[in-house]
Amino acid sequence: MRGIGVLKAGTTSRSYVxxxxxxxxILVVDVGTMNPRDALDKAVDSLxxxxxxxxxxxxxxxxxxxxxxxxxxxxxxAPFDPIYHKTEPEILRxxxxxxxxxxxxxxLNVYEYR
Length: 114
Hints:
Structural class: alpha+beta
Mean pLDDT: 91
Radius of gyration: 14 Å
Distance between the termini: 19 Å
Number of helices: 2
Low-confidence stretches: none
Helix content: 10-25%
Strand order of the largest sheet: 1-2-6-5-4-3
Number of domains: 1
Order of helices and strands: EEHEEEHE
């Protein structure tokens, strides 16, 4: 996942749902584009090259994908917006000191079920 751009921030959480462990990795990645729509498109294209497939789209807001390598791994990809990270203050703190354009950032929520 991190191979699609430069990792700017990330966090991991675990929860238990219906007897299974859900591991959520929340990553903010700079994909090197000039606007949010291009950032989403570039992230999705990069994931497709890594054998991910699209399972739902609501462009330009969000794309849901599943891993072609791991059956229980899914991802939600969206242009970065700090409003969606209010429950992850460590993400916002990490980005507070970053310079650069926020338009090139995408949020990747990667879910793994075990």
